[in-house]
Structures are given as structure tokens and as C-alpha cells.
Amino acid sequence: MGSWRRGLPAVTGHRLFWPVVVLVLLLAANVVYRPSFLAVEVKNGHLYGSLVDIVRLSAPLILVALGMTLVIATGGIDLSVGSVVAVSGAMACLHISRQPDQNNLGGVLVALAMAVGIALLLGIWNGTLVAVIGIQPIIATLILMVAGRGLAQLITSGQIITVNSDPYRMIGVGHVLTLPFAIVLALAVTLLVAVLTRRTALGMIIEAVGGNSEASRLAGIRARRIKLLVYVVSAVCAAVAGFMMTANVSSADGNAAGLWVELDAILAVVIGGTSLAGGRFYLGGTVVGALLIQTLTTSVYAMNIDPQTALLFKAMVVIAVCLIQAPAFRAKFWRRRTSAGSPAAPAGEQRKEQVAA
Amino acid sequence: MSDTRPVLTMTAISKFFPGVRALDGVDFRLFPGEVHALMGENGAGKSTLIKVLTGVYGHDTGAITLDGQPVSFSGPMEATEAGVSTVYQEVNLCPNLSVAENIFIGRQPRRLGAVRWRDMRRRASALLARLNLDLDVGELLGNQSLAVQQMVAIARAVDVQARVLILDEPTSSLDADEVKQLMRIMRQLRDEGIAIVFVTHFLDQVYEIADRITVLRNGRLVGEYPTAELPQLALVEKMIGKELDALERLDEQAGRDLAAVETGTPVVEATDLGKAGSVEPFSLTIHRGEVVGMAGLLGSGRTEAARLFFGADRADRGRLAVDGRPVSIRGPIAAIERNIAFCSENRRTEGLVGELSVRENIILALQAARGWLRPVPRRRQDELVQRYIEALSIRPADPEMPVRNLSGGNQQKVVLARWLITEPRLLILDEPTRGIDIGAKAEIQRLVVQLSDGGMAVLFISAELEEVLRLSHKVAVMRDRQLVTELANDDSLDADRIMRVIAGGAEQKDGTRHE
Questions:
Q1: Residue B494 contacts by C-beta under 8 Å, 6 or more apart in sequence?
Q2: Highest-confidence range of A123-132, B150-159, B410-419, by mean pLDDT?
Q3: Which of B146, B204, B296, B367 gets the highest tally of CB atoms within 10 A of its CB?
């Protein structure tokens, strides 16, 4: 309960301060562009509005990024998540499309189970390459990143499979208790992962393995098993994200589904404060990071920025976030400004100035 | 050039790290055309002194002069430019580049921005010829033997008009012939007037080549001696040293009561246990309540032997029995299940997870043994951690502090606490008191006595003989990767006798090398 002034450094020093600032700025920019941006309304008992859309669309990214967080915490990386999205989406859609009655819930559930099963195998494949055989994670998962696209094409026979299944579409665009189902699902998975890592000792053990693998081994941790586990979790998360993405458009495209999602996921993790070197991880930070990236994507489209240049714009914002977050960069930036300009203002106020500029 | 004026002096150098005084008023001088051995056990301050000299670290007090001019290098580059070059233990060259490229990397001869390859090759050949090395300079460095790589590193170092050449354990990975080759080059450079600082753990090499010896211990200067006036035994004595006042209180209660140790089935019994290329087969028993000291110089196989007990490395021969029953220890987990605990000598790389808190580090082994599905309840964690923070007086007494912020001694206590809460029956301590201040050292020693009185078996490895003598019931002496003898710690055993056994190895080795 300190005074406002004393509380200020605690707020500005928080890991998520800058990502949240940028998120708020992005939302503000949207409001300036379209004043009705923040409006949320209830139509037919369902929640609608741009904000709701942003959260709904970020659901798959949140899922992929959660798995990625655990992998990165062990000091690894998983480049294959985009391909796993494509494979699982293709698998689910293929099975559903072969049903006589695509609206049969049982058939859809079997399809989902089959797709999750394949994702499990793919996760074990990644984990084995990394933990048992000892290939560097970036190379090990690069194999599946490339091969997985081929596998997806094999499943769909090179076609785009379209499905017409209400239960399946539900995953992407349905509603539960006024909320979009995707949001509820993402929230549930986030809670599940949080409970799994923070209510058990798994989180600490993952952090120990990522922080110092050899010390962990000598303390009796089965580091290999833990590494294998996180790649499996990552693949399963990606599979569920694959359902959302394909259900959203009611079709599975082996080439386009989940394309480049691994990069967005890695960015979300890093923006959330988890170091690529492994060790401490922050699930909450990852969720904020994913929301930030999706907001950025949506804003780019909403503001009619030429889609050709959208990626460039996105990249610039991401670089800015990463730089602002780095204490070393802030310190450098700062010294230059103070030596050039007015030296008097206290640090807290100058920081605010910097954001506004 | 006058031989009476030192090319380099370091006067009253002190260097503090948080919680540790790494160097305390150390003097060092170096004359042109001499090989000067810098000796001391691990943690004595040799590397810190070299790093201070070459500008890797700043120094807190003291002065450095080069040719009578005060200098203070901001980094190794600046030191090299001023003529002080260093060749490190691990060759820091690029194996994927050619020999010539490695010699001239960063300062290739150029014209209009383009590298003059032919000129570079010619100059590299000339340089190597000067060192009597016949090499194709276009070959990849990685295809050469380690010794040749080492010599290329030296060639690179002396090409920059070096007047002082620092060789930091250059021979530790070389075989006898390669060492000879290196010595030849060292002599040649010395005769050219270059001053060489030679850091090594091999006593015979020191006596073969060094003109003078400076000995450090615990960050302090022990003395500077002409090699001819310092017999090998005296050198070992000076390196290992005798512990001072703060520990004397413990001495009173020492002279461990040999009768108190239970006989009967030993807690662990190693029979011809060994691992090829690491440690020769040895046999050793440790009983309940017994402290077995392991003495020997660095690289004598002490750590390697201890790691076999814990499964940190897997033995490829011999047998291990726990409580008389043969067991196969395939990894740390198997050892922990049999209540064996191991505190590695490398706290930072093999002990602690620096980023995690004191609490998490302490709980780690217990948690690992329970499996991740059964977390130690938070209240029990806090209770255990609090108890051990108090019992071992870990400072600061903040369980949530990242462990990397603690001083060396407190980090050591955290590792100890981690294993003590697993209630081990055999505790292996590898250099538990190295690099920590004297107060923490005394506390840890007292703890070992307490634990063994309570029935714990302890394998205590240390380079400090005083400490080994004070704590152990019996002392196993390692030399050249062999357990040479086991000495009961009765009244007749003193540091001199152990030193003779340790140094005996060095003399013997000396003999075989010179046959």
C-alpha cells in the first residue's frame, strides 16, 4: 500500500508493463480510427463486437503459444506446431467428411480423438529426436515442420477438404453461454496447463531442467522424460488449435492451415517474458503476448493497411515491443536523451514521455 | 635490455567478489627471458590474477606496471596490443579455418579492403618456421593434433610483438611427446627474451622448465622462490598450506575417535570399481558414521571416483554394494533411491539452478524423488527450508531470493541443505569448502562432524590436507587416477606423511618421463 509515486516503479518495472502499454495503445489507435471499436453488444444471446472477435481469433494462437512456452522453458523450441495444426485439422476434417451424417456428434468426437492421437505421435517423434537422440531442438522440429506439410497433403490427397458439420463448426464459431466457444476452450486449456504446472511440481521441474540441465540430472530429475513430455503437450495444444482454425472456415487446407503460426507463437512467448534460453516461464505473459499479436493483426486489416505490407508493419511493432522491454536498450536510449535534452525530470515521468513519443 | 629490471610488476593487487576476497594484496613480478610458474590449488586466485592482469577484471586495489609504466588494460585486446598475450587451456581458435587464417584472424593483411591471401600464407609459414614447426598453413586447424593447435595459438600470440606470454594450463590435454614439443617452444621463446607465465598443475613440468615459482593460496601470496631453492615437497606444502586460527577450535575436538566407527557391513563397498579413461579400478569401503577423506592433487581422479558412487558417471567395471547387497547404479536417480547424495565441486554448473530461488533449489532433489505429481506441500517446503536456513545460517535468510545472488559459501550451504533434507546415508562432498570464506568453511566442517556423529557415512574430498585430517577417520590418497593407499587417521598420520604420498607420485612421474 505505498503511495502512487512509490508504487510507480513497481508497475513500470513489471515484466508485462510494456506489452500491456502497447496493447492499450493499439486499442486506442483502433478507437481513433473507428470510434465504435470498443462497442460490445448481445445479439441473439451471443456476445458480438471487435474486442470479442480479437479474443476469439487469438484463441488458437494462445493454445499453440502455451505449448511453446513449456518447450521454450526447457531450453528448446518447437518449429513444427504449424505443421501439426495442418495435420490434425486435415485428419479431423477427412474423417468427418467421410461420415454419412456429418452432424453426428459421435463421429465428430471420433475424428477429434484420431487427430489428437496423431498429434501425440508427432509430439513423441519430436521429443524423441530432442531428448533421446539429442538433436538440437531447432533442427529436430524443423524436420517435422517440413515433413508435416507433406503429411497433411497426403491425408487430404492434395485437395482442400470441406466439411459441413455443425458440431465441428461449433469449435470455431459456436457460442456457449453467450461466449464464443473458442474463447471458452482456450480459457479451459490455459487453466488446465496452469494447474498442471503450478499446482504440481511440474512447473518447477521444467524450469530446473531449462535453467541447468546437468544440475537437474544430478539432483535426480529425469530430464529426458520432462523434455519428451513438453513436446507432446506442445503437439496436442497445436492439434486443438488446428481444430479451431479449420472449424472456423469449415475446411482443411494442408498448405495454408497454421502457416507461420510457430513464429507468432514464439513471439508471444518472448513478449510474455519467457527467455528463449529456457528457465522461468510465464503462462500469463504468453496469453498477453498472443492477444497483443492478434490485436496487431486485426488492427492491420481493420485499418485497411495494404495486406501486402501488413507483415512489415507487424514486424516493426514487434521489434519495438521487444526493444522497449529490454532494460539494456532502455538504459542506452535514456542516456542519449538525457545527455542531449533536459536532465532534470525524474525517471518515472520521462518514461511516460518516451511511450507517448 | 637489463635482466635486473622486471618487465612486469603487479603490486598489492586485491580483488573482491560479492562475499569472497579472491585476491588479497598479491605481488607478482616477471623478468624478461624467464619462465615463471604460477602455482596454487583451485580457488587460490591464479586465474583471477591473470584475468586482472589482462584486463578481463578490474582490480579493487593495487597497481600494475609494464616496463616501469603504470598500465591498466580495459580488456584482453588492449593487453595483447601492449604485448601481453594469453593462451588459454581450451584453445580458442576456429577449427573450421585454416592454420594461416587462425593466426591472422582479425588482422589479416589487406589491400583495398581485400585480404592478401598469399601474403598471409607466406607470413604464417615464416612465423611457424621460427618456432620450428613444419606445417601446411593452408590446412584446416581442426585436422591438427591438440598440441599443434596449442602451438598455433602460441604462434598467434607471439606474432603480435608479445613480450609477456601467459600460458594457462597449456599442457593439461597433451600427451608426453606433445608436452616435450611445447616445452621446446617455450624454451626457444624464453631465449628470445619473452617472459612466460606458466600456469599448470603438473609439478614435474614446473621443475623441468620454470626458473622461478610464485605460490598463491586462498587469494594470498605465499611467496616467490627460485625453482632450484624450492624442493618439490616444500612446494606441495606451500600450495596446500595449513589452515589458520578460525579453525583451531575444531582442532581441539579433532583426532577422530577411530573406535567410534561401527564395523560390520559397510554402507557402501566398492570393489575394483573403475571407468576406462577416467579412474583406474579401486576398492573402498565406507561404514556408518565414518568420514573417509580423499586426498590428492587436482586431476588425480578424486572427483571421478566419487562420481562413480553416485552414478553421475557409469562405472564400466567392478562392483558396488550398498549394505552388503550388490547394486547397479545406472544414474543419479538409482543412487538417490539408495540414499546416496552428492555435492559436486562445481556448484554453479552441476549444483545449482541459478535462476530458481533458494527454496526451490533446496527442495529440488526431494521433489525429484517424489515425482512431479506429488508436490511437496508448500507449508512443508517452507518449514523445511526455514529450518535449514537457520541450521546452516544461510544468508540472506530469504527463501525466495534467486540463488545466484548468494555468495559462494551460502550457495554451498544451499546445495548441502538440498541433500540433507533427503536424509542420505552416504553423503559425498566434493571440495565443499573451496572458494568460500573461512567462517563458512568452519561451519561446514563442524556440520560434517555432527552428521557423522549422527551415523551418516561421509566421503569427503578436499585438496586441503588439514581439513581432511581434521575430519576423516581414514584417508584415501589418489594419484594419477589411481587410489594409491588408504591411511588410518591415527596419531601417526600428519599432513607431511600424506604430502609425501601425494608428491611421491609427482616424483615418480618425473622419473618415467625422463628415462
A1: B469
A2: A123-132
A3: B296
Q: Where are the domains of chain A?
A: 44-332
3-state secondary structure of B21: strand
Distance between first and last Cα of chain B: 37
| B369: nearest CB among A199, A218, A220 | A220
Closest CA to B467 of B489, B485, B482, B491: B489
Q: Taking the domains of chain B in order of start, what are their residue ranges?
A: 8-240, 265-339+425-515, 354-423
Q: In which region does residue B269 sit, left (phi positive, over 0), alpha (psi from -120 to 50) or beta (all else)?
A: beta
pLDDT tens digits, one per residue of A253-292: 888 888 889 999 999 999 898 988 899 999 999 999 999 9
Q: Return d(Cα A235, Cα A62) in angstroms, integer.
A: 13
b or e along A149-169 (b: 16 or more beta carbons within 10 Å of the residue's beta carbon)?
Answer: bebbbebbeeeebebebebbb
Are A280 and B418 within 8 A, CB to CB? no
CATH topology of domain B8-240: Rossmann fold (3.40.50)
CB pairs under 8 A between A and B: 78
Q: Which string of b and e fits B266-294 if b means at least 16 CB within 10 Å?
A: bbbbbeebbbeebbbbbebbbbbbbbbbb
Of A327 and B403, more confident: B403
- Using CB atoms, pick whichever of A199, A200, A219 lies closest to residue B365: A219
Query: Could you read off the pLDDT of B276-293 as tens digits, one per residue?
Result: 888 899 999 999 999 999
Q: Which CATH architecture has domain B265-339+425-515?
A: 3-Layer(aba) Sandwich (3.40)
Provide, as residue numbers in chain B, all residues whose Cβ is less than 8 Å from the Cβ of A204. 356, 360, 363-364, 367
Per CATH, the architecture of A44-332 is what? Answer: Orthogonal Bundle (1.10)
Give the pLDDT band of residue A344 (cuts 50, 70, 90): very low
> Helix or strand or coil: residue B413?
helix
| Grid cell locating A143 | 524436420
DSSP assignments along B225-263, one per residue: EEGGGS-HHHHHHHHH----GGGHHHHHH-S--GGGS--
Query: In one letter, which amino acid is B243?
Result: E
Residues of A in contact with B358 (CB under 8 A): none
Count of C-beta atoms within a 10 Å radius of residue B318: 15
Q: What is the mean pLDDT of residues B331-336?
A: 93
Which whole-number Å values give the CA distances from B131 to A17, B137, B391, in the listed order?
60, 14, 59
The predicted model scores a pTM of 0.74
